[in-house]
Amino acid sequence: MKYINNISNKSWLIVSQSCYGGLIFGYATGIIVGTLDPIAIKFGASTVLKGVIVCSLLVGALIGSFAGGFAANKFGRKPLLVFTALTSIGGAIGSGLGENVATICILRFIHGLAVGTSSSVCPLMVAEMVPIKKRGIFGSFFQISITVGILIANILAYVIKGDWKLMFCLGAIPGGLLLFVSLVISESPVFLEMKSTTNNNQTNNENQNDISQQGSKYRIIFSKKMRKPMLVGVLLATLAQLTGINAFMYFSNTIFKDAGINNPEIASVALQVWNVLTTLIAIFLVDKLGRRFLLFTGSIVMTVCDLLIALFLLVLFGAAKGWTSIVFLFIFVGAFEASIGTLFWFVINEILPEDSKSIGAPIINACQWTFNTILSFFFLVVVEYLGQSTMFWIFGGIGVFCTVFLYFNLPKSLGASTNTTDDIRIPEDQQQQQPSIEELENDKKYNHKDEQTNSNEQIPAQMQA
Prior knowledge:
The chain has 465 residues and is mainly alpha-helical. Helices cover 82% and strands 0% of the residues.
């Protein structure tokens, strides 16, 4: 356990890498608000092609988030931080220098890889290098930074309106900051200890056992006990992604413009300011009001807002339609951040069985990104051919179905677990293979008594996080 006593990083380094990773995530996804229309005008992009431009980043993020957890375990957290920073810098600058839609999409895909890996490695570093008492607040910085990144992107979209090349290139700044931090921060002691243990105890027989156990894990996902948890998890991902939140984030200018707002850019900035504020408020409400209460209250409010917006877009005209749309969009965003936006991984960690989280969580996470991509591609197409009101009727219908299903199937004991890792909002596939620092410290007692016994006991201890 020699690595445990060598945590030389100051707290600000750990917080910084999480914040810069969140800014990469938020800015890259948010800047499309200000760049999509100028790109479409310059290259004559159709509605379908605009959807492809948006989705190119999301497909990269899907791959990056799914592979990031496994890459962090194989190569280490620090190398993945460096990879995230470099791909973010290259993707941002390359997108800004692109001279055709195909090049922009390819570079946005590369930037998306950075978005996905940042969501895997940055919260993981916090979970492994911060004392338990500080993990909750430190862990929330990543989510806060995402909303701040989206806000910055919307402000820049208003200030430097039309200059899509500059807007894309400015996305390299958080990547540069993360690169600096990734070069001076130390490797996670948990990864170093895990690597040391693996090197000291690995034998051919153990390798065969590992392969057999891994195959068993994948078979577990199809077992009867996993059907309901996985179905609930997928429905939670549906509630999070297919009720409209990312349509508001990516296409807020279009939504406000179609609703008759004269200054859609200002309205989008105001929406993102509200998004940041409600995220901060939601973080403090989780423990006070309870997860189940917040989840269902939020989902009901979100669904009602979708249905009312759909109705008002049909029956109201002029300024009345515009202002009512803004009011209920703001209420929707507040309800989202106070419920599924904050609680998603809390709930997933509780409903999945311990022996299946490493497989179930990545699948549910992949569903999130897949739904996000589908929505982003088809939103403008549906709005163009069927009208904006139809899109909100669809959002509302999905919300009704998810809310009713979850009411009858979501466990009523949410939040009852005393496991400290439940208070960290990071995917379980990134946590479960890692021992907590406290467990590793406890294992030190056995080093002085029986070194041989200790080497045999460390492997099962790694599965307890």
